[in-house]
Amino acid sequence: MNWIVEIPLEEVRSEHYKVNAKRCGKKQPCLICGKAIKDESKAKYVQLLTNGNIVSSTEKFENSQGQFPVGTDCAKKLVINFAF
Fold first, then answer.
1. What is the mean pLDDT of residues 20-26?
2. What single-letter DSSP state applies at residue 39?
3. How far apart are CA 75 and CA 54, in angstroms?
4. CA 21, CA 29: separation in Å to the nearest integer?
5. What is the rounded average pLDDT of the residues 14-33?
6. Phi, psi angles (nearest 5°) of residue 44
7. First and final CA of the chain: distance in angstroms?
8. What pLDDT shows up at residue 30?
9. In this predicted structure, what is the pLDDT of residue 4?
10. 16 φ, ψ (degrees, to nearest 5)
């Protein structure tokens, strides 16, 4: 059985997210820290729900805003099998 974990993005998001995201320019920012993703081929992805939570599943959710990239360092900080 696979458990689906849902946690508020604000609990894992860096307090410097907005500042870092502004510095990205045209590069895609990490959803967690806001820093530019250097190598998008190595990025992991998390699903963001409309309630502001991220969910540990690739299942389609009715209230999903889609998949967003997370850098490799930030992905390591998430629950096992949380980023895909």
1. 90
2. -
3. 12
4. 6
5. 93
6. -100, 170
7. 18
8. 96
9. 82
10. -100, 10
Retrieve residue 41's tokens.
């081929």
Amino acid at 81: N
Strand order in the sheet with 6-8: 6-8, 53-55, 44-49, 64-70
- The pLDDT tens digits of the residues spanning 52-84 come to 999 978 888 899 999 999 998 998 888 655 556
Q: Compute the distance between CA of residue 83 and CA of residue 32 in angstroms, rounded to an integer.
A: 11
Tell me the pairing of strands 44-49 and 6-8: unpaired
Q: Which residue has the tokens 């508020």?
A: 8
Q: What angle do CA 31, 29, 84 make, to 5 degrees?
A: 50
**Alpha-carbon dihedral angle through residues 47, 48, 51, 53, given to the nearest 10 degrees:** 80
